[in-house]
Amino acid sequence: MLDLTIYAIAGPQDYPTDSIEVAFEKMSHVIESGVTVFQYRDKGMAFPQLGQREQLVAALRAVAKLEQVTFMIDDDVKLALNVHADGIHVGQSDLALEKLVPQLPTDMILGLSINNLSEMTAVDDPRIDYLGLGPIFPTNSKADASASLGVEYASEILNANQLHLPVVGIGGIQLKDLPVLKHAGLNGVAVISLLTQAQDIAATVSAMKESWQNA
Fold first, then answer.
1. Residue 88, φ and ψ in degrees, nearest 5
2. Among all residues, which ones are annotated catalytic?
3. CB proximity list for 95: less than 8 A, separation 6 or greater
4. Residue range 161-214, pLDDT digits in tens
């Protein structure tokens, strides 16, 4: 069963002062920290060497397999298939679902981002496994992020979840926010900077899990 509780997202762009090799080590530490899902996302990233991107992702996928962490790829079917990822996550402006679904193995997890009530009510494809809702709070991690929803509107959107799909919240989430987000009806939280900028990743993940479980 897919556990969305602590959903980490990262790519080399989240370590702008580090080499690809150092970024790999840091992302590996995130995967090894106790997260339940890791999504590799590198939009806007340029790799200096041919084949370096796939080598990096394949190595991260191997770490995730060893740690039994669900490994997702952001919006790249070919990459997801080549590294045998557990799944792929797409946004509203990415490849249309009717074109995407036939390319996926039947056991590959499919996640879809939603940003408002109308997008939630439009979700009707039984192939979708989970939804990503956000940004809940203002965020600097995505340059193309929509306006933040706030907890009240996010809760309203969750109430319109006709397929009863699991939903992970994303966008500016801090440790203190977890109890209210769980009570709003989310199944987990997706974070970028909370972990990529953490001084002690494992301790942060442990605190997140404790806060979520006790909420």
1. -135, 145
2. 41, 113, 142
3. 75, 77
4. 999 999 999 999 999 999 999 999 999 999 999 999 999 999 999 999 999 999
